[in-house]
Amino acid sequence: MMSTTAVRPVDAIGRLHARARPDARVVCLVPSITELLFDLGIGDRLVGRTGFCVHPREFIRTVPKVGGTKDVDIEKIRDLEPTHLIVNIDENEKPTVELLAGFVPNVIVTHPLGPLDNLPLYRLLGGVFGREAKAAELCEAFQKAYFKAIGACADMPRERVLYLIWKSPWMTVSRDTYIARTLAAVGWDCVETAGARYPEIQLVPSMLEGVDRVFLSSEPFAFRARDVADVDGLLREMGVAPAVKVALIDGEMTSWYGSRAIRGMSYLARLREDSLSPA
After folding, report:
1. CA separation for the pair 129, 145 (Å, rounded)
2. How far, CA to CA in Å, does 235 sit from each of 100, 169, 211, 275?
3. CA gyration radius for the chain?
4. Are strands 159-166 and 170-172 parallel, antiparallel or unpaired?
5. Could you tell me where the DSSP H helices lie in the chain?
6. In angstroms, rounded to a whole number, what is the distance separating the alpha carbons of residues 124 and 148?
7. H or E segment at 164?
8. Is-contact 160 214, C-beta < 8 A?
9. Which of 9, 84, 180, 210 has its CA 20 to 30 A from that of 125?
10. How many angstroms separate the CA atoms of 230 and 188, rounded?
11. Sign of the torsion formed by the C-alpha atoms of 139, 141, 143 and 149
12. In what order do the strands lie in the sheet with 84-88?
């Protein structure tokens, strides 16, 4: 039987949040968490979201947009009179959040850094908005998917991958990111980088040394099949293909924490298995 014991709803910067009133008005600037709010049963309290908050498609269209994750319309949010604002350390600009905190009473800061951080995320929002039982259900579903994926990939050889999120310039992810830790859970270890968590890189032979696969993510840059062909061509010019495989990967399944991460773990386990199957 699932436990619905109340936990202290403390966010990523250590702020303890009181339980929200039933008439709370929420603006969410984090696409994956917007989806999570609906799955927790809090969607009816959402009064604002970014243009990148696209799930669940059947319900999200009626929620007003307030800009992007970084180019936020401050005055539009002010007009919505939210009682709660949900932000993320990676996705939202600190100066913008500080401006919004000047008139939004409750700012909930999130910062998942690995797949298991989804569990406290579910409990945090479930605790703030009185959805502890639903949060417990999501925790159970995630743990089941996570450990099933770990088990399915346990005997597969680990591989080194370069995960690209942008072109012109090329950009990747450091190992100190949610994406990298999620990939590592199923046996894909991202290339080590120095400095920024989302660094610009040069696509040169030294960067590809020891790499088994290059993944082109569907977001934030929308890589397509033609990009796979272009990158494969570059690798052939460098003399590292076909040993280094190039493939598209669904960025929502690797970078979206929240409820989508439950499907994400299953997706990655299947993709890992398929990648090792003979062509």
Report:
1. 25
2. 46, 17, 11, 19
3. 20
4. antiparallel
5. 31-39, 57-60, 74-80, 94-100, 118-128, 132-153, 178-185, 225-238, 251-255, 260-276
6. 24
7. strand 159-166
8. no
9. 180
10. 23
11. negative
12. 46-49, 26-28, 84-88, 106-110
Q: pLDDT in tens for each of the 279 residues of the chain?
A: 344 455 789 999 999 999 999 999 999 999 999 999 999 999 999 999 999 999 999 999 999 999 999 999 999 999 999 999 999 999 999 999 999 999 999 999 999 999 999 999 999 999 999 999 999 999 999 999 999 999 999 999 999 999 999 999 999 999 999 999 999 999 999 999 988 999 999 999 999 999 999 999 999 999 999 999 999 999 999 999 889 999 999 999 999 999 999 999 999 999 999 998 765
Q: Dihedrals φ, ψ of 76, to 5°? A: -65, -40
Coil, helix or strand at residue 99: helix
Residue type, 137: E
Tens-place pLDDT, residues 80-112: 999 999 999 999 999 999 999 999 999 999 999
The token duo for 239 is 């003399």
Residue recorded with tokens 């989302």: 198
Return d(Cα 9, Cα 124) in angstroms, integer.
Answer: 5
Beta bridge partners of 249: 217
Tokens 């089941």: give the residue: 144
Phi, psi angle pair for 33, to nearest 5°: -80, -30
d(C-alpha 8, C-alpha 198), whole Å? 32
